[in-house]
Amino acid sequence: MDVRLTTEQRELREAAARLADDLGPGSVIDLDDADRVARLEKAVAATGWRSLRSDGASGVEVALVVEEFARGLVDVPFLGPVLADDLQARSGTAAESVALAVGGEAVDARGLRAALRLVDNRIETTGVGEPVFGIDLTRTNAAVADPVTPVGELAADAAQRWQALALVVTTADILGAARGAHALACDYAKVRSQYGKTIGSFQAVAHLLAESLALIEGSVSILRYAAWAVDELDPAEALRAGRFAKVYTERAARTICETSIQVHGGIGNTWECLAHVFLRRALTSGALFPVSLEEIDLGLS
Amino acid sequence: MDFRDSPEEAAFRTRLQDWLAENAKKFPTSGDEYWAKAAQWHQALYEGGFFGTSWPKAYGGQELPPVYDVIVDEELARAGAPARPSLGYLVIGLGRHGSEELRQRFLPGMINGTERWCQGFSEPGAGSDLASLTTTATLEGDHYVLNGHKIWTSYSDDADWCLVLARTDPDAPRHKGISGFIVNMHQPGIEQRPLPMISGVTKEFGQVLFDGATVPADQMVGAPGEGWKLAMTVVSHEREPSTLGFTARYGKTVRNLAARLDGEPSESLRWAAVQTEMLRLHVRRRLSEQLDGLSHGPDGSLDKLLMTWVEQSVGHASLDAGGTRDAELLGTYLYSRSQSVMGGTSQIQKNIIATRIIGLEA
Lengths: 301, 362
Description:
The complex is a heterodimer.
Chain A: H1 7-23, H2 34-47, H3 59-71, H4 79-91, E1 99-102, E2 105-107, E3 114-119, E4 122-131, E5 142-153, H5 156-191, E6 193-194, E7 197-198, H6 203-232, H7 235-264, H8 275-287
Parallel strand pairs in A: 1-3
Antiparallel strand pairs in A: 1-2, 2-5, 3-4, 4-5, 6-7
Helix pairs in contact in A: 1-3, 3-5, 3-6, 4-5, 5-6, 5-7, 5-8, 6-7, 7-8
Chain B: H1 7-23, H2 31-36, H3 38-48, H4 68-79, H5 88-97, H6 100-112, E1 117-120, E2 136-140, E3 143-154, E4 161-167, E5 178-184, E6 190-194, E7 205-216, E8 220-221, H7 227-238, H8 241-244, H9 248-260, H10 267-289, H11 299-322, H12 327-336, H13 346-358
Parallel strand pairs in B: 1-4
Antiparallel strand pairs in B: 2-3, 3-7, 4-5, 5-8, 6-7
Helix pairs in contact in B: 1-4, 4-9, 5-7, 9-10, 9-11, 10-11, 11-12, 11-13
């Protein structure tokens, strides 16, 4: 066993991180900068990463890009299109960038006109209607619109594998948002002074940030396995690994994001600070393909 | 990236499974009964070819990649065998700071289990603040004379040798006046007193009093005053789950609890299962990273913190399952309380993470 990332995987992660750092929002005001969003959209489209799956990329590689995009609060569609792309690849439907629909909503659908959804084993295309209310400030959901057209069917195995990928992708998004929130809080703790010292020098603050980092490391470890499992284990096992990863990471991320708000003090409780933007994103990805502790199967490997 | 065994690893695992089918049940896994046979277990495991796998061949190891430790831990837990003896931190400490003469003399016996070891660092007045230790070692001719009081010494009753930190220069700044020694435990001037733990284990833990015990000067590890460097190497490696070993036992406990259930598993048991799975995968990631020759240093504090949370979540699940009516499950819970204290408290680990990894002001 050797569970290190390959050189290619590390390079992909670094490229995604650079793109997110260069063009993602650096502040709450940046969220409304239409020029920036247009540049980001163009850059993401140019990478071709929305079709990673149909280009043969592994679950690990998709997860790495999703994680870095969430860390940098990338606010153009990615999670939805990359999951829709996997459905397209499995069903052989036309390869254009489309949104993903889950139930009656097209998720992560800003600017997209069509969506794909999986209902039981059946793949359907739908239109994308009007935006619906959501708490995520970086991604928009919309209502599913007519017409709804069946376009294909997946074997039970393939459907399970896609669900495992969906858990991995949402978990990677949660982890990325948590890492972003933690980095924001650590940077703040190094510069904000009280009583003549930086607040990071106080154990009461330092220990919270240390705990968050341990939670991040644990999340990375459990997610990497689930991401690898998508393509390498049988689908039921992959699904199980995805559930474990999502439950652990979702709990961890909530603590990490709440800690970030706390460390920021008063400003952390206002719209001025990005901490809540990370929290909102983590909560939104947690609620998409939700997993509860009650679904955890105790027959451990 | 591949979480599966390579062909070589699979062959090793099969050989180990066969060996365990023969040998596992000969050894009790816990409590004082375990302790009575711990040396035999260590030697049997070594002779089977399943201990010290990653350590240098020159001292009795096999120089296999560190991931073989994962296989050993997993299969020991699966077979219901006792834990892999935990002394990697001593092997690394002596290997890195001892002279070649000391390594040749002491590492083979440490690794093959024919000589038993304990670690004499902590004192009643020097636990987390180790640099304030007051045990003295005074040079008299060709040997040092030891006086002082060590405490929280795991396995002291069983040990042939103790890696002792003692103050050799009372005038030097407190971190600089400390030296490391390999002390023979079978001599006059050493008294041991067991410290029964809250879980009821009576043999594992003790205190050691030095009253004029001696150690040859050439059994100093490193140069005079270099004891602090040795201490830092030992404690940082003491914190890696790979060194602490046998994290797979948490999964075993969770499975045992699940098997005893009548109805639905408690939330605490499910959460313990999730955390246990996280740790299993975390150890694989860390040991794989060591294939790059990466030494984790302060990262060991992250691993220790994660491991502590897992052990204590398993402890809570045990308490929830057994309440106050099941002595064994209560013992599992009570034993888990020590994990956030031993090898540096969780608060100390968090200080290390905050200052040395995150880079917050101290």
